[in-house]
């Protein structure tokens, strides 16, 4: 009686209107802003931040912390990659910085040299990257190292996925990479996770291998299923109206990935203050 996912924004762009017509409760972690619209899609809810929340965090770090003025923006060629790169570039310009290079790269493209050279020759002081493809991201990091270019990468959470560790040519290639992260799933300066998150990791030990993924994906998936279970348990029903009614009444629900608040008019549940940037 409810759907978790898709977990890819491009797929959700196609699926969301269909689920809305079927009045099917839908919880997803997809970030494209237009996927959430309580008027058009009254049964769809987002469990992760929106792309605007991600983009704000990335832009703030790039312009205010790293103080870069000339930015290259790179996305892949998926629906998500194109829309995210365009929105990011527009926001960077609006904040007074210069977008010296904007490109969408096919995630399967083996040679990243042409795009990286264009970005360097354009004078880029930082590269903002929007892609879920760990292969493409690793090739960008490896190319940067081969060029001897000390430019920082800032952007999508996938830049910190454990899978990249097996795709980069040496650990140093992962330095000066700053990815969107979350307080719930990030180590602090002492190398510790929040106690609530550590409890989840301890429970998953020996059951789920976390080395080649991101903890937030696992935590968000756990929370999504738990939210549906709580909705059915609390309302005593699996009907659409019962599930959406429960979600619309949530205030500061304490999940493992985040603290969720929804209402009839707000279906973005993740709190901006829980979004961080991670090295």
Word description of this protein:
With 279 residues, the chain is an alpha/beta fold. The relative contact order is 0.14. 38% of the residues lie in helices and 16% in strands. The mean pLDDT is 96. The protein has helices spanning 9-21, 51-65, 79-94, 113-121, 134-147, 195-204, 215-235, 240-248, and strands at 3-4, 26-28, 44-46, 70-76, 98-105, 126-130, 153-155, 177-182, 253-254, 259-260, 275-278. The protein is globular and about 60 Å long.
Low-confidence stretches: none
The CA-CA distance between the termini, in Å, is 40 Å
Order of helices and strands: EHEEHEHEHEHEEHHHEEE
Q: Give the spatial strand order of the biggest sheet.
A: 5-4-6-7-8-11
Largest sheet: 6 strands, mixed
Helical segment count: 8
Features:
11 strands; alpha/beta; 8 helices; 38% helix; single chain; 279 residues
Q: Can I get a quick summary?
A:
By secondary structure, this protein is an alpha/beta fold. Helices cover 38% and strands 16% of the residues.
Describe the secondary structure blueprint for this structure.
Blueprint: E1 3-4, H1 9-21, E2 26-28, E3 44-46, H2 51-65, E4 70-76, H3 79-94, E5 98-105, H4 113-121, E6 126-130, H5 134-147, E7 153-155, E8 177-182, H6 195-204, H7 215-235, H8 240-248, E9 253-254, E10 259-260, E11 275-278
Parallel strand pairs: 1-2, 2-3, 4-5, 4-6, 6-7, 7-8
Antiparallel strand pairs: 8-11, 9-10
Helix pairs in contact: 2-3, 7-8
